[in-house]
Write a structure and sequence with these properties.
Helix 2 packs antiparallel against helix 7 and helix 3 (108-117) runs parallel beside helix 7 (252-261). The protein is 24% helix and 22% strand. It has 7 helices and 12 strands. The two termini are 25 Å apart. It folds into 2 domains: 2-94, no CATH class; 108-267, no CATH class. The chain is of the alpha+beta class.
Length: 279
């Protein structure tokens, strides 16, 4: 995915590969109401396209389109912040983690979460995942735990994780019980799948594995389908919408970035923003 800044009066622009949310916001700051300027964000592998431009009649014009060139959404925002949220949220949903990279390589989404929170990744404490036989969990989850430890985001949303002091044996025991109590609680609550079949729970093949929840009782799961855990989608069950399950074809860290960015109205209250802390 790339982000570009364009200015009508200059032949040279600014291009960023694999932009973070912060970098997109920095580009957007260059928009000039007195000239034709715009920022584009485009997927490398699917030709999805989104842009923010200065509108002739004031405000900011947002254009989103799919690989066929059909416009998905065109809107004029009176203020810049909702325009940025619209494009950042769109970009997060379009990037379906196609660039998996080498196992164990730094995850760009975890890096962005660390920057967002002001956490120094160099102080990460790697847990003995391999010795504990836990490398079957998604890469971004393991790196998130190494960087952030067991913590609540904005003091309201908890990512289920082990303590940093765990030995390999303790970590293996924790991972083996990650889903404890979930099936008993949710097998009678969750609505059926779109095909009418009931949801199953890990360790059943393709079963749900819970990785996070908030103080309201909203829960996030991986659907452990397929052989690549880095491609497990996130399923979200909201206590206020008990008859529906929302699916996001994103990794855990990218999903958290989308929730924190405010770019998806469904996620607006999953991790509410306090007045005194970004994360």
């Amino acid at each position: 995915m790339t982000a570009d800044f364009h200015h009508a009066e200059s032949e040279s622009g600014l291009r960023i590969d694999d932009p973070t949310e912060i970098e997109i916001r920095e580009l957007v700051r260059g928009l000039d109401r007195d000239a034709n300027t715009f920022v584009t964000v485009e997927s490398d592998d699917a030709s999805w396209y989104g842009s923010i431009a200065v509108a002739d009649d004031g405000g900011y014009e947002v254009v989103l389109s799919d690989p066929s060139g059909a416009e998905l959404d065109v809107a004029t925002e009176p203020a810049l912040r909702p325009a940025v949220r619209r494009v950042v949220g769109w970009a997060a949903r379009r990037d379906v983690r196609g660039r998996r990279g080498a196992r164990g390589a730094p995850r760009p989404d975890v890096t962005e979460l660390a920057r967002f929170a002001g956490v120094d990744k160099s102080l990460a404490v790697p847990l003995p995942w391999e010795q504990a036989g836990a490398r079957w969990l998604p890469d971004d989850y393991r790196e998130f735990i190494d960087v952030f430890g067991h913590r609540a985001l904005r003091e309201t949303f908890g990512v289920r994780g082990p303590c940093r002091e765990y030995s390999a044996g303790q970590l293996a025991d924790f991972v083996g019980h990650l889903n404890d109590g979930v099936a008993e609680t949710f097998e009678q609550i969750l609505p059926p799948r779109p095909d009418g079949r009931p949801f199953t729970f890990h360790p059943e093949p393709g079963g749900l594995l819970c990785w996070g929840d908030n103080f309201r009782g909203d829960h996030c799961f991986w659907s452990t389908e397929g052989t690549d855990p880095d491609r497990w989608p996130v399923l979200l069950w909201l206590r206020g919408e008990p008859d529906r399950v929302h699916r996001y074809d994103l990794g855990m860290a990218r999903f958290l970035l989308l929730a924190l960015s405010g770019g998806d109205p469904v996620l607006s209250e999953l991790i509410p923003e306090p007045a005194d802390s970004p994360l």
